[in-house]
Amino acid sequence: MSQRPIAAWSLHCRQSGIGSEWNAAMSSLSPIASVSLSGMRAALAGLDAAGHNIANLATPDFRRQQVVSSTQVSGGVQTSFTQAAQRGSNIEADMVDQLVAKNAFLANLAVFKTGDQLLGSLLDIRR
Length: 127
What we know:
Layout: H1 3-16, H2 20-29, H3 31-55, E1 65-71, E2 77-83, H4 91-126
Antiparallel strand pairs: 1-2
Helix pairs in contact: 2-3, 3-4
């Protein structure tokens, strides 16, 4: 999967207001969905930061954005953005961060899909 669809999904989430309210609704349905959605959001934050850093390579006195992830007690992760202490770019790190974030998103998406299939199977058995 290319990075464009993931970036488009990130933009769609921000524009349509998909966020904590939707995550809260999903967590009541399935803890697997809640954890994987938080992982996808963390990966999208990583993609956003890497894209921001790459777009500002030529900006004088630019400080790279970094994503800090922390574990939530209820499961999943929470992210925040910080600025690097040193000025300057690091294109190699940004490219690697972009690949790591893409693969993290795809892994969490696979978990989400598997959880959805399992929940569907359970509902089929109950009928």
